[in-house]
Amino acid sequence: MIEVKGVRKSFGDLEVLKGIDLVVEKGEVISVIGASGSGKSTMLYCVNALESIDSGHIIVDGVDVHSRDTNVNRLRTNIGMVFQQWNSFPHLTTLENVALAPRIVLGKSKQEALEIARKQLEHVGLVDKLDVYPSRMSGGQQQRLAIARALAMEPNYMLFDEVTSALDPELVGEVLDTLRLLSDEGMSMIVVTHEIGFARDVSDRVAYFHEGKIEELGPPSQVLDNPESQQTRKFLANVR
Amino acid sequence: MTMEVAVLAMLLGVLLGLALAMVRMSGNRSVTWFAVGWIELARNTPALLQLFFFGFGLGAFGLHLSPFMIVLCGLSFNNAGYLAETFRGGFNAVPPTQLKAARSLGMTLGQSYIRIVIPQVLRVVYHPMTNQMVWSVLMSSLAMLVGYRELAGETQFLASKTYRIFEFFLVAAVIYYLMVKLILVGSRLLSWRLFRY
Ligand SMILES: Nc1ncnc2c1ncn2[C@@H]1O[C@H](COP(=O)(O)OP(=O)(O)OP(=O)(O)O)[C@@H](O)[C@H]1O
Ligand SMILES: [Mg+2]
Questions:
Q1: Rounded to a whole number, what is the distance in Å from the CA of A216 to chain B's nearest CA?
Q2: pLDDT-derived band at A185, boundaries 50, 70, 90
Q3: Domain B2-142 classified CATH 3.20.20.120?
Q4: Whole-prediction pTM value?
Q5: Which amino acid residue places its CA nearest to atom 4 of ligand 1?
Q6: To pair with A45 at 20 to 30 A between CA atoms, which of A20, B43, B73, B92?
């Protein structure tokens, strides 16, 4: 379970998160929508401690993420993250991209790590690209590679930050299909997205972010189709 | 001799250059001015003057370095200035999101740099570094002017003894040429091995 409790976060004078409360149950898929600059990415970064918080708590499977005693490197192996820019490591082959962290972070043997990598690349449909360098792959393939790389750590949670926003339209589908697959397999995930249709399909709940707060939170049938908040309605009208 | 001083000056240049680049990128006001000053002087004043500074300049203050040290210091100073900018460019060329991605997988800061960032920097700085090495070898010829006998100095010494000036300098030129070619070919071969992407 991910518990975000009263989290506040400022960059200088700019308060980006103004008291966020959110619980992600095991197996739950939560989509996060909201205007640019509303703090969606910042919240994800706070969940795996890539950003610090000013006040509040984030607890992941009982571990207080921002406590001094927490080993963030161990914590991060439990929380996979995929970014908007596909961050494949250009100097490593697809297989090496995925096998690296299991080997040097989880301490698996080379053989085991390669086995895990092959399995996860098969999972996202990239078995025919094992020895290819990322520069030879499409954005969609590189994004799936990034997903496989995160999954190789066997995380309990996955965070997706607008993973289709930088893709050519014809490549969006294959990446969304991969997310659907994960959701069907019961992965717990927070998905920041502008794809409203996708959010409606896969989410258990949708959170609408507005100026550093969660303005509305509920099942897609409520937030997307029958929003209570004026702000949510306005946002959705503009997105469509 | 030429090679020895050039290689040593290159090694020192790389270490100092890295340090200067880090200092410059750190944005720490109290030390950046030092790095910026070094880089500016090394890049925008004649190499010969830099060499003379470590020879006659320091000599004027009563600090007498051996000719070998003068050449080594002068070349290292110059190499470090150029390489600092090369390294800074190299680090800037790697998107910060690469580091974020590595950290998000649970890699430590050290692991992220060693496995992810530095290999990519190396690729960017590899050719400029090769050029600097060539430059370092060629500049070692200036050493004759401060009395250190590397290849060009030796040539001049022998030439002045035997008066067969043209022949000796021709031989020196050929030897320099071969050394540079050797470096370039070696570097090319190594780059094929290192950078397969
Ligand atoms: N490292 C940082 N330093 C300073 N300001 C930042 C930093 N990161 C984000 N911000 C600011 O915080 C605000 C929220 O940013 P954030 O990236 O969380 O928004 P977002 O909801 O993800 O938007 P988008 O849809 O554009 O990705 C923005 O105004 C942004 O400029
Ligand atoms: Mg964002």
A1: 28
A2: very high
A3: no
A4: 0.85
A5: A11
A6: B92
